[in-house]
Amino acid sequence: NAGVTQTPKFRVLKTGQSMTLLCAQDMNHEYMYWYRQDPGMGLRLIHYSVGEGTTAKGEVPDGYNVSRLKKQNFLLGLESAAPSQTSVYFCASEERKFQLTSTDTQYFGPGTRLTVL
Amino acid sequence: QQPVQSPQAVILREGEDAVINCSSSKALYSVHWYRQKHGEAPVFLMILLKGGEQKGHDKISASFNEKKQQSSLYLTASQLSYSGTYFCGTDPTSNTGKLIFGQGTTLQVKP
Q: Which terminus of chain B has a smaller tally of CB atoms within 10 A, N or C?
């Protein structure tokens, strides 16, 4: 099992460029998440998905779009990158079906470090 | 509303104990604890659900007081491997998965 993988690991963009970050999980998890992490800010939820074909907004969704066409993949898109989107992006997945239990765990990918110039 | 963690940073010697607190202004259903080492992804430690439970994981344990909307993480007899940044994530519901994370507490354990 590879767990949760993210592509690419690093990327530098110019303001206004677009890109897609790919998250893949091989654990057949229903829930998937995209977070960004900035110094001193902790993790902030961008968008999430509770199953194939579904997406929902998190805490900081502006400037991002997502798609979950296949259960194992969750894509995060930046249509027109801005310097404020410079951050480390983490994807996570979780098995939970609907109700949270004490054994539920979010598994995080290794992260993508994005710099927007 | 982001939960507030305290302290922001703590330095320990091996073998000493530490307590990290997480307080929310909103009613909570669950509190999730993670540890992140520099340059790595966060790693899950434990979840505490509404009901005021306590959990243990080796020498790391946690409590959740839903009336006070607080959770505490207890690290006993700290080891060098405990160094890192600890985050609490809070969720007021049972089924959305929308965690709000605190700003983190940096723990450094010295020999």
A: C
Where residue B60 sits, what CATH number does that domain have? Answer: 2.60.40.10
Q: Flag the least confident range among A25-34, A56-65, B55-64.
A: B55-64
A82 located within any domain: yes
Pick B97's closest partner by Cβ from A43, A94, A108.
A94
CA angle A69, A70, A74 (to 5 degrees): 75
Q: Is residue A102 part of a domain?
A: no
Judged by CB atoms closer than 8 Å, whether chains meet at B98 and A59 is answered as yes
**For A97, nearest residue in chain B (alpha carbons):** B95
Which residues have a Cβ under 8 Å from the Cβ of A21 and sit 6 or more positions away?
A6, A7, A8, A34, A75, A76, A77, A78, A89, A91, A112, A114
Test A108 with B43 for CB contact under 8 angstroms: yes
Q: Do B29 and A100 touch (CB under 8 A)?
A: yes
> Is residue A21 assigned to a domain?
yes
Number of domains making up chain B: 1
The answer to whether residue A13 scores a pLDDT higher than 70 is yes
- Residue A103's pLDDT is 67
Q: Which domain holds residue B29?
A: 4-110
- Angle, CA A13 vertex, CA A8 and CA A15 arms, to 5°: 150
Residue A75 pLDDT > 90: yes
pLDDT at A100 over 80: no
